Amino acid sequence: MVGDYLFNQRIRTDRTGLESLAVRIARDVDNSDVSAIRESLSIAAGELGGRVLLLDENGKVQADSYGEMNGIRLEYPEVANVLLKGVTTDYGIHEMESGEQLNTNNLLFTRRGNASWVGYCTAGVVMSSEIIGVLLLVSPVQEMMQNLYQLQDQMVLIFIVIAVAALLCALIFARVITKPVGGLMRGIQRMSKGDFSARVQVKSSGEFRQLAQAFNSMSEKLETLDQSRNQFVSNASHELKTPLATMKIMLESLIYQPDMDKELRAEFMSDINSEIDRLSNVVSDLLTLVQMDSQNVKLTRENLSIAALIKENAHRLQPIADQKGQQISLTLSDPCDIYADKSKLNQVIYNLMENAVKYTQSGGQIKVSLVRQGRDAIFTVSDNGPGIPKENLPHVFDRFYRVDKARSREKGGTGLGLSIVHQLVLLHGGAIRVESEEGKGASFIVELPLHQG
User: Fold this and answer.
1) What average pLDDT score do residues 82-100 get?
2) How many whole angstroms separate alpha carbon 349 and alpha carbon 353?
3) What is the maximal distance between C-alpha atoms in the chain?
4) What contacts 447, CB < 8 A, 6 or more positions away?
5) Helix segments in 32-117, DSSP class H
6) According to CATH, what is the number of the domain 301-449?
7) What is the pLDDT of residue 349?
8) What's the confidence (pLDDT) of residue 310?
9) Check whether domain 230-293 has CATH 3.30.70.100, yes or no
10) What is the pTM of this model?
C-alpha cells in the first residue's frame, strides 16, 4: 500500500509535467520547428529532473534533450501503448542496463542490490485529434526505490517483531489458560483414584474461577459423604457387634455352666432376648434409612389431622410417663389438617414424644404444642430434662450419634431415631431443628407445610 502510494505520487508528478509539455510543443511539432522543440525539451528536462525525448509516429527519436539518440527507434512498451493502443499517457520502471520492467506487485522478489532503476513516462502529442508524436521522460528513480526497499526492510523487521511478540503473548496466554485447566485435571485424576481431599487453587477469574470453586465444593461434599459413609459403616458395625458380643458371652456361660441356677439361667435368657430385640431394632432402623437414602420411599398421602395424631400418641405414652411421675401437657390451638403419609408422620410424632419421656428425669414435664403459622404447622416437643450441650447440637440428627452413649444404650436407643425423624420430615417437605441449653431441657420444633388433598 505504501509502495503504491509512492509510485502514484511519482507518476502523477511526471505525467502532469509531461502532459503540459505535450500541449505546449504540439504546434511546434506539427510545424517541424526543430529549434523551438529543442529549447522546450531542454527547459522541460531541467524542470522535470530527467531526460526528455520526442519520438515520431514510428517510435524514432526526433529530438533528445541530451542530443545523443536522434534517429534511434525505441521499442519501449510505454511508447507502444501510446502509439498503438491509443492511451494518452503511460508509465513504467525499468532496469537501466537490461531494460527489464519492474513488477511493482512483487518488489521483494525483483530486488537486486546492484540494479539501477529508471522511470519511463510517455505522453502523446496530439494535434487535431491525432497523435503526431510521443514525449518520453526518462527520470532516475533509484532514490525512490532505495527508500521503498528500506521501508520494506523496516516493515519486514516490524512484522518479525510483531510475530515474535504475538507468539510470546499466545504462549503466555495459553499458559494462563491451560494452567488452571491442568490443575483441575490433576484434581479430577486424584478424585478418580479415590482421593476426595483433592482441591484446586482458585487464582484465576471469570468462568475458570467459578469452575474451580464448583470443583472444590463438589470435592468437599464427596469427601464429607465418604467420611459419613465410613463413619456410618463403623458405627453400624459397632452397634451390631455389641449385642452379638453380649449374647455370645451369655451363651458361652450357659454352655459351659450346665448346672447354672435356674433363676440365673432365666435371667440370662431374658437378657439374650432383650439383646435380640435391640439387634432387631437396629437392623430395622438401618433398613429404613437405607430405603430412604435410595429415594425409593413413596408417601401414601391422605387427609388427616396432626392434632389427632398427637392426642393418640400422648395416650399411648401416658402409662410410661405415669410410671416416672411425669406430666404430659398438650396445647393444640389448631387441628392442622394436612395431606400426608399417616404412618410416617405418626412415627415422627411418636419418636419425638417418646424421646422426651425417655430422657426426662422422673417428675419432669413434657410440653407438646401445635399452632398454625400461615400455611405451615409448627409442632413442638419440649421438656425440662438435662438438655443437650451446645457442642452436641449440630450432630443431634447424625446417624448413631448419642449425647450420652451409656444412658442411651441403657434405655434401648439405637442412635438412629432422630435421623429417621429428620429424613421423614424432609420427605414431607418440612424442616426440623433443636433448641437446648444444658440443664434446662430441650425443644424439638417441626415445621410442616399444610397441603390439602
Assistant:
1) 80
2) 6
3) 162
4) 376, 377, 378, 379, 430, 431, 432
5) 34-48, 77-84
6) 3.30.565.10
7) 92
8) 93
9) no
10) 0.48
